[in-house]
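Lecture 7 notes: from sequence to structure.
We start with the chain below.
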Amino acid sequence: LVGATKRLSAGELGARTGLSPGQGELSQLASAFDQMAESLQRGHELRLLEEELRRKNYELEQQNRAIQEANRLKTEFVSMVSHELRTPLTSIQGYAELLLDGEGIAGEPRESLAIVKKNAERLLGLINDLLDLSRMEAGRIDLHRAGLDLARVIREVAGSLRPLIEAKRQRLRLDLGDALPAVWADGDRVTQILTNLISNANKYTPAEGSITVAARREDGFLRVDVSDTGIGLSPEDQAQLFTRFFRARDPSP
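Predicted structure tokens for the same chain:
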């Protein structure tokens, strides 16, 4: 017992008396000593774990700060580049429109100008998407809400995508109910969301499949469902649904 006490006081937390339990006072004292040593050892191990956790938490905090700073710099860079690209493209688009509005250009030059205008508009759309992404990441996206005829928006989006749908011999059905009320929403954002959902349905649905867009009242809101007979999402893909830049596997051609 004395030897175990000396080892424990010297820092050997694994020191034990090695005495068998018994009824005598010395045996009880040895048992109490062993229990105390066991508690001291567990406490020491817990303190070591806590220190390790604090160290790892500090490292994670430092990494998170570095990631946030990198994201901030990236967002600022994307925003700056987008604005710089937008200025000359707007000029190109404006001059192309002016030339197309004139009467002195016809034939192949006019077709070339139309291609220039179309691609300038496409690039401006991509730049706007980049600006939207940078604003969303910075938490500064602005919503311009107004009264919106959702049924009309759905029909317009479906009409714009109908050539793609018909090219795959797919069936598009609109189930919009009767007299849907107006909603308070950002028309551009709603159009963007519906375009993404319906174009994805077209992309991931085989030829001769069907796509349905339904809208109905539900608990004071208008609910819109886009469903299709496509390949769907695997459980693994569903777990990544809200992961940035994640993309499900491409449909087979």
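Points to note: Strands lie at 145-148, 171-175, 183-186, 210-218, 221-228. Residues 206 and 230 are 6 Å apart (CA to CA).
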